[in-house]
Amino acid sequence: MKPVRKPRLLAANAVAVAFAVVIAFPLYWMVLAAFKPEDELLSTDPRPWTTAPTLDGFRRVLTVDGLGGYFVNSLIVAGAVVVLSLFMSFLAAVALTRFRFRGRAVLLVMLLVAQMVPVEALTIPLFFLMRQVGSVAPVFGLNHLGSLVLVHLAFSLPLAIWMLRGFVAAVPTELEEAATLDGASRSRFVWQVLFPLVAPGLVATSVLAFIHAWNDFLFARTFIISATENQTLPMAILVFFSPQGNDWGAIMAGSTLMTIPVLIFFVLVQRRLVSGLSGAVKQ
Amino acid sequence: MPLLYLIPAGVLLVCMMGYPLYQLVQLSLYEYGQAQASGGAPLEFLGAGNYLALLSDSRFWTILLQTCLFAALCVLGSLVLGIGLAVLATKIGRIPRMLLFLAAIGAWATPAVAGSTVWLFLFDQDFGLVNELLTGSGMSAAEGFSWTYDKYVAFGFVAAEVIWCSFPFVLVTTYAGLTGIPGEVVEAAALDGASVWRTTRSVLLPMLRPVLLIATIQSIIWDFKVFTQIYVMTNGGGVAGQNLVLNVYAYQEAFAASNYGLGSAIGVVMTALLLVITLGYLRAQRGSEVTV
């Protein structure tokens, strides 16, 4: 690019920083409100700082309203989805890259189409499906966390397989030949050589799966009808909205708790995420 | 052997995506209400009945139109902001760029529910910072102004939140595309006497086309099926359902009004619309591969 003259560079820098401040502001405001004492929150003269930071909001939502339990529920669902999706998508990606068989091209196109299916539209049939499943295996039925694990696992698979394909394909076939010559069985090669080699891809895919399951609002709202103890975080936060006045301190503390794990994940893996995503789209 | 590896993922996808898709179409062909859901009444086959009911309902057309307009607004906003900031990011110092990207990634990572609640708080009628600042700067009309009461204001408000959390994807992909273009290409064009405008139009844009295509189509797919933000920020679709989009409409018809058949028909319409966009995407992508 052309070298930019100094005043223009300064102006561009200033504009960029201004945008950064505006974009980050809602997050700052959320965390700030979570630490503000009650009277400051209800003042009609909100200040962009607080002189008396307090953990009251967090204490209240965690102990009185049991948000800790919902946090754990969210973790269980997202964690189960990540682990299961990792193994399933890895195996499928190996099958689709390392083997030539009839119908492979069709499967690949179906994977691409599956990524475009608006899963939100499937809420109604899945609701009835989960009701049926529940009558056979209650843990995976309505009102149980298992139902959420099943749907998010399924929804995370198409993209995860698609992304992992690129990583598996990048491992040279000579490596497999060498392993075979050394007497390693196929499954031994897959698990002890291939699996560690595609670790970066596994990280990117598992983060995406985690975020999808962690952020879900629609299915949690639809499937967990009466068993409030099995609610996940997004639904639990909405309890603090009421016509008599919203408990903003609790809402912001809950939202902060919900955002932090995702934020940490994103910052840790953002580079891999972007390369993984663009790799997935390019193929 | 490959079959064995495909079984776990394959079985789950068939059960949790393939079968429900088939069921969705099935349900949309029946009268399926509370009585049928609880097994109290026999199923009644309607054929295209639910679809005819939808097509002759002016409410459906209104919601379809506002879904498209809302999605268009969100897509346009995300693209303008994302591409604009990506271009800006190529012309600034390292530290401002890092700040910009950190902020964008923060917005991107914020869960939809948390993002919705904090925007609601910022724009709250009585305790919100925005109304306070507006009143403070002399706009007395802003005192106690509700951002979710008027239909168009509410749509704009939700769209702003959606743009806030979906432009970062455009920014990151476009920036990656821009930095992937070798500087020599631009220099060569400049040496040949091409103006900045000409360079942008004839050199940069064609090279960026695949990236921009992906960003655009992804945005369309996301913004067309926004659910959480509309549901949380307008409290289930706004005053008297004025802020409904197809997704929320289908949900409300099914789970609030127990019209599971009609709700499924809306779901089928939405899936079909998105499929058309998907096919356009696949075609355009193939087209771009040929030209590169």
TrEMBL record, chain A:
<dbReference type="Pfam" id="PF00528">
    <property type="entry name" value="BPD_transp_1"/>
</dbReference>
<keyword id="KW-0812">Transmembrane</keyword>
<keyword id="KW-1003">Cell membrane</keyword>
<dbReference type="InterPro" id="IPR035906">
    <property type="entry name" value="MetI-like_sf"/>
</dbReference>
<feature type="transmembrane region" description="Helical">
    <location>
        <begin position="248"/>
        <end position="269"/>
    </location>
</feature>
<feature type="transmembrane region" description="Helical">
    <location>
        <begin position="148"/>
        <end position="168"/>
    </location>
</feature>
<keyword id="KW-0472">Membrane</keyword>
<feature type="domain" description="ABC transmembrane type-1">
    <location>
        <begin position="71"/>
        <end position="269"/>
    </location>
</feature>
<comment type="similarity">
    <text>Belongs to the binding-protein-dependent transport system permease family.</text>
</comment>
<protein>
    <submittedName>
        <fullName>Carbohydrate ABC transporter permease</fullName>
    </submittedName>
</protein>
<feature type="transmembrane region" description="Helical">
    <location>
        <begin position="189"/>
        <end position="214"/>
    </location>
</feature>
<dbReference type="InterPro" id="IPR000515">
    <property type="entry name" value="MetI-like"/>
</dbReference>
<keyword id="KW-1133">Transmembrane helix</keyword>
<feature type="transmembrane region" description="Helical">
    <location>
        <begin position="12"/>
        <end position="35"/>
    </location>
</feature>
<feature type="transmembrane region" description="Helical">
    <location>
        <begin position="106"/>
        <end position="128"/>
    </location>
</feature>
<feature type="transmembrane region" description="Helical">
    <location>
        <begin position="70"/>
        <end position="94"/>
    </location>
</feature>
<keyword id="KW-0813">Transport</keyword>
<dbReference type="InterPro" id="IPR050901">
    <property type="entry name" value="BP-dep_ABC_trans_perm"/>
</dbReference>
Automatic annotation (TrEMBL), chain B:
<keyword id="KW-1003">Cell membrane</keyword>
<keyword id="KW-0472">Membrane</keyword>
<feature type="transmembrane region" description="Helical">
    <location>
        <begin position="152"/>
        <end position="172"/>
    </location>
</feature>
<keyword id="KW-0812">Transmembrane</keyword>
<feature type="transmembrane region" description="Helical">
    <location>
        <begin position="260"/>
        <end position="282"/>
    </location>
</feature>
<protein>
    <submittedName>
        <fullName>Sugar ABC transporter permease</fullName>
    </submittedName>
</protein>
<feature type="transmembrane region" description="Helical">
    <location>
        <begin position="203"/>
        <end position="222"/>
    </location>
</feature>
<feature type="domain" description="ABC transmembrane type-1">
    <location>
        <begin position="64"/>
        <end position="281"/>
    </location>
</feature>
<feature type="transmembrane region" description="Helical">
    <location>
        <begin position="60"/>
        <end position="87"/>
    </location>
</feature>
<keyword id="KW-1133">Transmembrane helix</keyword>
<dbReference type="InterPro" id="IPR000515">
    <property type="entry name" value="MetI-like"/>
</dbReference>
<keyword id="KW-0813">Transport</keyword>
<dbReference type="Pfam" id="PF00528">
    <property type="entry name" value="BPD_transp_1"/>
</dbReference>
<dbReference type="InterPro" id="IPR050809">
    <property type="entry name" value="UgpAE/MalFG_permease"/>
</dbReference>
<feature type="transmembrane region" description="Helical">
    <location>
        <begin position="99"/>
        <end position="122"/>
    </location>
</feature>
<comment type="similarity">
    <text>Belongs to the binding-protein-dependent transport system permease family.</text>
</comment>
<dbReference type="InterPro" id="IPR035906">
    <property type="entry name" value="MetI-like_sf"/>
</dbReference>
